[in-house]
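Handout, section B. The chain below has 164 residues.
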Amino acid sequence: MLGILYYDGQAVKRDDGRAYELFVSAAKKGSADAMQQLGHLYSSGIYVEKDMKTAAEWYKKAAERGNARVEGCLGGMYLCGEGVDKDYRKAHELLKRSCSKGDMTGLYNMGYMYDKGLGVPKSARTARIYYKQAEKSGHFTAGKRLVNISFIARLAAEWLKHKK
């Protein structure tokens, strides 16, 4: 996609405005990748004013076309109520689809749902499974969550041992 070249400055001088124009043009033609990029621009405030509602609208359009990365991002937005009303059921549905495609963002966000018990039964064991998969896929923060879960589990085990 030509817009990526301008956005990243690959083989051409970086030009966020030109990238935006190309993403809009490609999105109008049905490109889920361009819709994802527009969602990213709006969620980050790159070239356009940051607008989480507009970002969510672009992400929804891309998700309708089966874009796994966007399903993971949009699921996270429903999880936190960013740009959309908080909806754990919708978050879980999107994250489940994203996870089935191996998306690291979806895997991380699903782990977070179980880690915190957001709309699902709290389960460190299930969270650990998703975090491990996310980490293997390259999600840096998932590794930090795994360390935290392991640390808390060790503290709990020590506490129980001393309580007896």
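Note. Residues 142 and 159 are 26 Å apart (CA to CA). Compare this with the example in section A.
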